[in-house]
Amino acid sequence: MIRFLLNRLLQGILVLFALYTITFLLAKAMPGEPFTSEKNVSAETKANIRKLYGLDRPILEQYFIYPKNVLLEGSFGVSTSKGRPVADIIAQSFPNSLLLGLCALGFAIGIGVPIGILSAVRRNSWLDWLCMAIAMIGICVPSFTIGPLLQIHVAAHVPGLKVAGWGNPQDVLLPAFTLGLVSAAYLARLTRGGILEVLSQDFVRTAHAKGIAPITVILKHTLRGGLLPAVAYLGPAFAALISGSFIVETIFQVPGMGQHFVNAATTRDEFLLLGLSLFFGFLIVVMNLLADLLTGLLDPRVRLEGNKD
Amino acid sequence: MGNTAEPKGLDPHIVSGVLESNVIRSLFEGLVGEHPSKDGVALPGVAEKWYPVDTTRPDEWVFEIRKDAQWSDGTPLTAEDFLFSFRRLLTPALASDYSFMLYYIKDAEPYHKSQRSYLLSRNDKNFTKEWWASLKEVDFGPNEEAAENSFNFKGLDFLNAAQLEELRDSPGLFEWPESITAETRAELVRKNIAFVQAGGDLWDLIDFGATAPDPHTLRVKLNSPLPFLPEITKHYTWYPVPRHAVLKHGKIGDRFTDWTKPDNLVCNGAFILKSWKFNDHIEVARNPLYWDKQNVGLNGIRYLPIGNLYTEDRMYYDGQMHVTYTIAPELIDYSREKYPEHVRNELYLGTYFIRTNVNHEPFTDQRVRLAFSLTLDQNSLIDNVLKGGQKPAGGLVPPFGEYPASDAVAFDPERARALLAEAGYPGGKGLPDIEFLTTDKETSKAVAEALQAMWKEHLGASVKIKQLEWTSYITAMFDKDYDLAAGGWIGDYMDPLTFLDMWMKDAGNNRTGWHSEKFQEILAEAAETGDPAERYAVLARAEALFLEERPILPVYWYVRNYLLHPDVKGWDPLILDNHPYKFLRLEPGSGNRLQGR
After folding, report:
1. Residues 181-240 of A with CB under 8 A from B
2. Contact B314 A82 (CB under 8 A)
3. What is the Cα–Cα distance from B453 to B459, expressed in whole angstroms?
4. How far apart are CA A149 and CA A171, in angstroms?
5. Per-residue pLDDT tens digits for B404-438
6. Mean pLDDT, residues B490-494 taken together
7. How far are the Cα atoms of B50, B116, B546 from residue B532, in angstroms, in the given order?
8. CA A156 and chain centroid, separation
């Protein structure tokens, strides 16, 4: 088990370093500079700014300075577009994204898994078709359509709900629903598929033959194995949910992290871009690890393989 | 109120945007204040009185600072604070990109640009006039055209001691124009080395124009007469920053310090910073120590960084705000119909135009430029594509105050065809491939397509549209890598010069490759003209010449479309859109409640 963990940790570090290298090179390859502005800036001023951010040094030196600062000083640099430390931006926006993501995940599991189970149990009935059609719509309809529809037709009419904004506990509901919908739909389909596969196995037939109540068969015998595909999906999906979404955040005016990914790229904000990529990469690595561990708990076969590894 | 995005900061010396200015103008106050309803009229601010020393030649001004001026922590605000602020904005290490707003002050520019060689030798008797004339050809500053990391690229004035010594030992490292003798070169390098090794401060070498004869008097000596200096001091680059608070959290040239954090910020405006939640809101509240506090009508203002136009409008309809930053073009008609008394459409000091690259065929020919301009059906574009009530541009400078706005630009396809034929392209035959550079926004595309159709229809010209993402678009324009390029300009202050001096030969925002001796002569004449009316007439001549040459094709004058709640009183149209918040009042009326969406 420890070897398995160490192994994955090492992989994670490698992945992060590769991610850093690629992001760094891409950032350097973009045309323009962080302070390219509509108004002309004199060569002297540009020289001052470059010096301030250390962008006047050779590229190779810059490539090594950043990880050094991150590891030794815990500094992710200062955002050129926001004028504040990158770590500060992540610290201010990530809690909001985390809350939004957790709620979205709650919606996704709360809606997706029961629908998936229902579909699987009543497979090929009208109920199954209906659920899967809804799931398909959920996957296909983009959040920039659902969000405004919810604002106009729900928030504007329900007392206590605001069209957009962040501050009251109930403000999280609509954005979380919008954000979680796609995942809910995926989960429904994955759960259905997973459970169907288990349902066709011999031990389920045995359970039925022993006269166990159908509901117990589903909940006790089938669910554990049937949820495996869904759990594997949840790891990366969770990381994606809690790292924010540009669209949902701008529609609902949520001070989250997702918008910074897009803005950092368009404003050539190199340090913010690097900081966010590394943070997101870190989340993905950790979440994948957790998903693997959870899969191990649910599925003894994986556990065995893990030990042999 | 809506404010589009999270400010880069609240330090008046570091930011350069409109949305930052919106917050900063509530927190800080300059020498003179904005009038709530009259453009170009100055009201007392920190200064009680101001006047030029010589009214016929206003190149030196006196500002009398009010005796009871104080910072929000009770510290007295004196002329020294202004001197500190000017010096801070000009400090190279602060790396502010708006420092040039102070270049009007004597010796501000050479200090900010670290013109070491110039400052070291300008008072040297050994440097005769002839030498100086030849030295003018040398670029001592950074030259971006030079080979990367060469001494010319870095600039002689920016070399450190070790690099200068290297240069002394091998003079070939810096490329000089032929005309400079070896002795002059060696002498300059020697002067630089001596100065750097002694740890000299360039500030000691300048004769800075701003002085404080006593704590309540600020004298500002300018490079040339500037009758509209009070207008310029309304810009936040001229605002004072609290010396004691800035220095408590860092040195004068430190950019990233904590003095603008909510608990630390000391200011002198009608409001103080109450709370600042990143990307969520900024809230300001009444300043109990403000000199004119009895006339401040609001308890506070909350700025919301809403980037999504539609979200902003929906929040407004939902009753969450009093003023929006803008209004989505698609929602203008809807809002006019449902809430006519909320929709505002006001002229703004800005012009949308198309740059031509006068170094690229066919725009090397003035007749072709004129032809392309005469085929722009401005009204059709505004009514059918923009739909925002913009005004067709008659010239470059939007109409304001006493300045006689031009009407040289008009729609005349017949004359355009004749001009094009005269230039050798009858019916568009023989025209090379033309590319129209614009941004990747949806509206940019719609505008570009409409213009493309006009040029095709009236001139038979085929123009290709090239859309680039914002930074790439700006970069391409800087590199003059375009034939036609969409562009625009927002005036920095209430004077035609803010639209005209950008077309000087070396002005960084020109980017068309166009220049004219005559044009520069007229501008120089205006700079020496003290009488305001006469000066406007001279500037109008410059504009007429510019429009005759037509290196840019003016399209429309900007307007601001936004939603303003009728409960807000004291908010009148202003062409710079810098509404002084202290005059605003909130009078909740009945029947203004928004229902339905």
Report:
1. none
2. no
3. 10
4. 16
5. 889 999 999 999 999 999 998 988 888 899 999 99
6. 85
7. 17, 36, 21
8. 29
Amino acid at B242: P
Residues B229, B495 contacting (CB under 8 angstroms): no
B595 in A contact zone (CB under 8 Å) = no
8 Å CB contact between A86 and A78: yes
In the DSSP assignment, the letter for residue B323 is B
Given a cut of 90, whether residue B246 has pLDDT beyond it is: yes
* CB atoms near residue B218 (< 10 Å): 28
CB contact under 8 Å between B100 and A266, yes or no, is: no
For the stretch A10-41, pLDDT in tens is: 988 899 999 999 999 998 888 777 777 766 67
Where chain A has pLDDT below 70, the residues are 38-40, 302-309
Number of H helices, E strands in chain B: 20, 17
Name the residue among B78, B115, B102 with its Cα closest to residue B13.
Answer: B102
Given A92, A251, A266, which is nearest B471 (Cβ)? Answer: A266
**pLDDT for the residue numbered B95:** 85
Residue B454 · residue B373 · CB < 8 Å: no
Residue of A nearest to B7 (CA): A82
Over residues A203-215, the pLDDT tens digits come to 888 888 888 888 8
From chain B, the residues in CB contact with A37 under 8 A are 16, 97, 474
Decide: A257 and A244 in contact? Cβ < 8 Å.
yes
| Neighbouring residues of A271: CB distance < 8 A, sequence distance ≥ 6 | A53, A66, A76, A77, A78, A79, A80, A86
Residue B128: both structure tokens together: 């005769």
Q: DSSP for B138-203, please give it.
A: ---S--TTSPTTSHHHH-GGG--HHHHHHHHH-GGGS---TTS-HHHHHHHHHHHHHHHHTT--GG
Distance CA A253, CA B307 (A): 8
Q: How many CA atoms lie within 13 A of B174 on its CB side?
A: 29
Mutate to test the interface with A, among B96, B144, B279 (most CBs of A within 10 A): B279
Residue whose pair of structure tokens reads 């005004």 in the numeric block = B391
Structure tokens at B106: 């004597």
- The whole-model pTM stands at 0.88
Rounded distance, CA B232 to CA B237, Å?
A: 9
User: pLDDT grade, residue B595 (50/70/90)?
Assistant: very low
As given in the structure block, the two tokens for residue A108 are 């996704």
A85: β partners: A78
Residues 6+ apart with CB under 8 A from A78: A53, A84, A85, A86, A271, B256
Closest CA to A252 of A151, A168, A153, A157: A151
Phi, psi of B356 (to 5 degrees): -110, 145
Domains of chain A, CATH where assigned = 41-75 (no CATH), 93-308 (1.10.3720.10)
Could B277 and A255 be called an inter-chain contact, meaning their C-beta atoms sit closer than 8 Å? yes
Whether residue B92 lies within 8 A of chain A, CB to CB, comes out as: yes
Asked if residue B454 has pLDDT above 50, the reply is: yes
Give the Cα separation of B191 and B580 in Å (integer): 50
**Cβ–Cβ of A36/B155 closer than 8 Å?**
no
Residue-wise DSSP of A141-177: S-HHHHHHHHIIIIITTSTT--SS-SSSGGGGHHHHH
Strand arrangement, sheet containing B47-52: B47-52, B60-65, B217-221, B210-214
Contact A44 B317 (CB under 8 A): no
